[in-house]
Amino acid sequence: MIDAGLVLEGGGMKGVYTAGVLEFFMEKDLYFKNCYGVSAGACHLCSYISKQKKRAYRVALDYLDDKNYCSVRSLLTTGDLFNVKMCYDTVPNKLDPYDYKAAAMYEGNAYAVVTNIRTGEPEYMPLRELHKDIIAVRASSSLPLVARNVKIGNEYYLDGGISDAVPIRRAVADGNAKNVVVLTKEVGYVRKPAPKSNLGLIWLKYGRYPKVYELMADRHTRYNDTLDFLEKERAAGKAFVIRPKKPNDIGRIEKDRKKLEWLYEIGYNDAKESYDELMRFLEQ
User: Fold this and answer.
1) Per the CB 3.0–4.6 Å rule, which of 9, 124, 153, 216 could disulfide with 111?
2) What is the DSSP annotation of 103-152?
């Protein structure tokens, strides 16, 4: 167990890059004391803490053509683009069984980042007993406009990425002197303001929760500020960043298996190529 933080950005299907990175980490028996996953990052974090090799790859790619997995039909009939029944019940409990016992025995800590839509604040929900904690992973992955609000306790939540897309500040605040950060956006990426048309839809759908609109309207500013903070941490020798070196045309809801296989291999190879440098960083 490495006494450091592991921060995993989301990005929809771009998250298969992260799955590739984590696959290499598992091969090298690299497990971190404190892990933070956002959206797709939280999903792939689950297979990492249960130490199930290639499971994240299978879950992301094996059901692309199944209309019960991700489809407009699911959105229209259930309110969720990614079908909740299939993603959080059928797959982990029947099609590709999740090792709940192994996850519960993970020696470190794992958290799914979610957004409280009443307060507009990020919350960091522990992942330990995934039979019940899986709802936090669902909330972390529930994108505005294409997913229902997720009720946990007396509050409602959506995607963690709209309030804390790269929780490096939280990792630092938790006392991690060093953090390994896996980004799905390429080197040089700068987030742009959301289109006004999208913000209009957000306003219409989430009128009861004005903080959602505020977060989405200012998301680009906070994201870019976070990248600036991360770069300062990296320059100070406190953070190690793994991210795609070049842009790609893979969308959040990508269905092209060959493209996704390619991105997975890129993630795996980027982790492999940076392994020696990463170990020097962790051992300093």
Assistant:
1) 124
2) HHT-SSEEEEEEEETTT--EEEEE-S-HHHHHHHHHHHT--TTSS--EEE
